[in-house]
Fold CRISPR-associated endonuclease Cas1.
Amino acid sequence: MTVLLNTLYITTPEAYLRLEGETVCVMIEDEKRLQVPLHHLGAFVLFDHVMLSPALLGRCAEDGRSVVWLNRSGRFRARLEGPVNGNVLLRQAQYRAADDEPKTLAIARASVAGKLRNSRQVLMRGAREIDNPTERDALVQAARLIANQIRKIPQADNLDTLRGLEGDSARIYFDVLPYLMKPSAREAFPFSTRNRRPPRDRFNALISFLYALKLADCRSALETVGLDPQLGFLHAARPGRPALALDLLEEFRAPLCDRLALTLINRGQIQPKDFDEREGGAVLLNDSGRKTVITAYQARKQETLKHPVLDAEVSIGLLAQLQARLLARYLRGDVPHYVPFLNR
């Protein structure tokens, strides 16, 4: 159980949350483990089998308080939503843009350009920090190859071509990403390729969990500004798929999630004991591992950086909100381009 930045994270299976006056009580095996004033909480993120009383669910829906259920690995399962709100005119603009091929392609290009540029920055930063010349050269070469892919983005005249550039760059990126781990950590965190549903090794389990946390933030940010998280531009619309939230996530995968995963490994903050191996080869973070990652993730969100568009210091936790607002401004026609988040 962790309360951070007005979000209550419950990672203990079979926990039960109930309303007691104007407070939330967390019960585990009939024992009250935590009691928090409701007005201090803006959201609940619940892992595995966690239950809420009908009274608490009703109050959250009434107040517009977010409740998200994730499975053990952090994969989205469900979300509680109250009455639909937000700017209907903005959503109309979003739906029109999704039917406008040039506009859809422009937004998708920005999303891919942001992802590739940030991935390249992670590799270049790593190349400056490691001592092994062979591995340094491999990182530099991979960064060059991704730069070549970035230069092709303006000429990509359809989504399939654009997705091909993104996929090729992702393979280049993940091929050399293990070089950013300390050699002493590589045996405990072997990584050869990206895999998921379920992840097959500890590193994939770790980044998948971080992606799931960031995706929840992206979805909340889009809903806050009045956009529909289900209708994206780069990712195809499918029932139950938060396509626009996945579009927004692309900008943050490498600089926020992957780098945090590498930091946790290189500093020894996350260990093999923080993972469980399941039948069939799946590897998942266990309860202690999830708590460690959530704490580090929220601490990272409190750090600040200079936003390249706003030219102002902002907390990392606000980046998804800011990018969602920039996208909304573009869809309304207030600005000529959507500029993705570019980490420096």
Observations:
- The chain has a mean pLDDT of 89.
- The CA atoms of residues 305 and 314 lie 6 Å apart.
